[in-house]
């Protein structure tokens, strides 16, 4: 993205130790302020690119805003559990899972009261592109989640009503964000508001997302 002439602010956070509520209400606003990311009409356009729970955190932050920031233009989410994750349904109460994922992992189930399922609708004035994976590394995780997915989130679970575009790519949950072709899709969406679909899939994508 830097090579594509964007100013990049690459944020990482303590997802195991800090609750989603604190990340949304305190941590993210503080980071935007620290990096001088303005959110007014007088500021340059802003885009977000997220991975997994990062997309849920962004949704939580947007849910707290009275209106969509006027210069916030486009968002791309890699593998977001927008409807929760079936894997969490299966292993969310395991001690090892809790140890690995910390305070937030178990809150990303598909239950009606899970964190992502308590969030409001996607803002109608903000373009969203979702990139899902369908090439899991761990076959057991793939079996537990059921249906096509990246091993941690099913393709269907990444979708969100109001999204602008959606594309499925042959990578796993962890590695999806690091591969060249998905990164190219991010650059395309930030520039045009659409992904570059293979010719045979383009018509289907238009029919299912608009």
Which strand order do you get reading across the main beta sheet?
A: 1-2-3-4
- The rounded Rg comes to 17 Å
How is the biggest beta sheet arranged? Answer: 4 strands, parallel
- Output the number of helix runs: 8
List keywords for this structure.
single chain; 210 residues; alpha/beta; 4-stranded parallel beta sheet; 8 helices; 4 strands; 12% strand
Structure commentary:
- The chain is an alpha/beta fold.
- It is 36% helix and 12% strand.
- The protein has eight helices and four strands; from the N terminus they run H-E-H-E-H-H-E-H-H-E-H-H.
- The chain has helices spanning 20-34, 53-64, 86-91, 95-101, 139-145, 155-158, 180-192, 199-209; strands at residues 46-51, 72-78, 127-133, 165-169.
- The mean pLDDT is 92.
Task: Briefly say what this structure is.
The chain has 210 residues and is α/β, with parallel strands linked by helices. It has helices at residues 20-34, 53-64, 86-91, 95-101, 139-145, 155-158, 180-192, 199-209, and strands spanning 46-51, 72-78, 127-133, 165-169.
Fold topology:
Blueprint: H1 20-34, E1 46-51, H2 53-64, E2 72-78, H3 86-91, H4 95-101, E3 127-133, H5 139-145, H6 155-158, E4 165-169, H7 180-192, H8 199-209
Parallel strand pairs: 1-2, 2-3, 3-4
Helix pairs in contact: 1-2
């Amino acid at each position: 993205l830097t090579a594509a002439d964007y100013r990049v602010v690459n944020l990482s956070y303590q997802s195991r130790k800090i609750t989603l509520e604190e990340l949304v209400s305190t941590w993210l606003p503080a980071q935007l302020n620290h990096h001088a990311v303005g959110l007014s009409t007088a500021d340059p356009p802003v885009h977000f690119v997220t991975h997994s729970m990062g997309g849920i955190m962004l949704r939580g932050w947007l849910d707290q805003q009275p209106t969509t920031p006027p210069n916030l233009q486009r968002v791309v989410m890699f593998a977001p559990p927008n409807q929760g994750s079936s894997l969490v349904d299966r292993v969310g109460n395991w001690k090892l899972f809790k140890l690995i994922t910390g305070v937030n992992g178990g809150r990303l189930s598909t239950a009606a009261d899970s964190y992502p399922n308590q969030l409001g609708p996607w803002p109608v004035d903000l373009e969203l592109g979702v990139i899902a994976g369908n090439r899991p590394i761990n076959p057991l995780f793939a079996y537990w989640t059921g249906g096509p997915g990246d091993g941690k989130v099913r393709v269907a679970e990444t979708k969100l009503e109001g999204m602008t575009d959606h594309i499925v790519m042959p990578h796993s949950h962890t590695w999806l964000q690091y591969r060249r072709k998905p990164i190219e899709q991010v650059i395309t969406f930030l520039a045009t508001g659409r992904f570059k679909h293979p010719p045979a899939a383009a018509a289907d994508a238009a029919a299912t997302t608009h």
